[in-house]
């Protein structure tokens, strides 16, 4: 699986290594889903979707969830929305299979007893050509969750509890297996939330053993036969963690790390500026119903801008059609409107990866899939005619740059700020051919190995200041 952010790069690798006229190894096992930068006027973002469209037509890819009419997503029956939830809803997540995707949250599909993990564009390009990938078998950490889940807890509380316990590197290149009576009682959407965030603990993949809940969800979604795989009685685990869920409290991850765990009640006095309900982790039907119940119980209107981004077309329709339990027949959309929330947006990744300047709900501090420094911010693809005054690493002034140096700033994956400076030789690095990531890393390591830097720019009489860590 690939999408509009990584798809063009993956296609480029595939053609480079296998030839311009090469065919993918199996056109029915490649899934391409535009979802990240869809509802934007940005030319480069639109170009990415065009590249996907041309490739899928050329290769006769069976599962390409295209969108052509950006003015009304409902006019595009093929368009689905966020890839990880769309994969599940369209029957691509099946027990016992392997799913490789060019996105870190591909592990979402582990909820189905599927080995699902994220890979880079280079690996994906070779998978397209050969249907093969070289993977080490990861050792497994088992998480046993037992006890009746209180009504005030969600699966998000469970995974944040776990990440807070083991840290963001506690499961690095390990499989995280979730078992126990609590897990067996979870819905498929809740299991997806659990597996979605194993990458935030460094996990290679997450897995929930397939059961009747899994099989029932898949009824009518796929005609492909599958064979579930389970840990046997002789299985040995790297380590075991056990939780009595009945004793847990709601938790949050404070900035700037998913393992910066705190009890929700400890944060009751924290002032918030905006609210964002959405993402592959928190934009499913049950997530919106849970939010609607909170609004319904409070009977109050929101005091800050509250943005709603359903993950997929199906979720969007559910928001407008399904009655919320205990509401007297009201739908989520009606409850949100009465509470003063923004109108539910078109299904897509929204602000989760930043995005072009017209990305819906950018510049937020949301509770989405991650709370990392430098993510979910305005991503200015170009600061036109802006001039860099000075560049600092920590408190160390490094240099003054040429006043004519325009800065291009791009953000890709993770909490990394990638810089590319044009028309300005800097520490002897090539200015136009240097890859932004390599440039930033070399620049950081060249000055006392500092990784914290501040960029100050002057635009006319106005100044901007950005603070980042590599």
Automatic annotation (TrEMBL):
Highest taxon listed in the record's lineage: Eukaryota
Gene Ontology molecular function, alphabetical: 3-isopropylmalate dehydratase activity; 4 iron, 4 sulfur cluster binding; metal ion binding
Keywords: 4Fe-4S, Iron, Iron-sulfur, Lyase, Metal-binding
Gene3D superfamilies: Aconitase, domain 3
Pfam families: Aconitase
GO biological process, one term: L-leucine biosynthetic process
InterPro entries reported in the protein's UniProt record: Acnase/IPM_dHydase_lsu_aba_1/3 (IPR015931), Acoase/IPM_deHydtase_lsu_aba (IPR001030), Aconitase_4Fe-4S_dom (IPR036008), IPM_dehydratase_rel_enz (IPR050067), IPMI_cat (IPR033941)
All residue ranges annotated as the Aconitase/3-isopropylmalate dehydratase large subunit alpha/beta/alpha domain in the record: 23-262, 265-359
Keyword Lyase attached: yes
Protein name: 3-isopropylmalate dehydratase
Biological classification of the source: Eukaryota, Viridiplantae, Streptophyta, Embryophyta, Tracheophyta
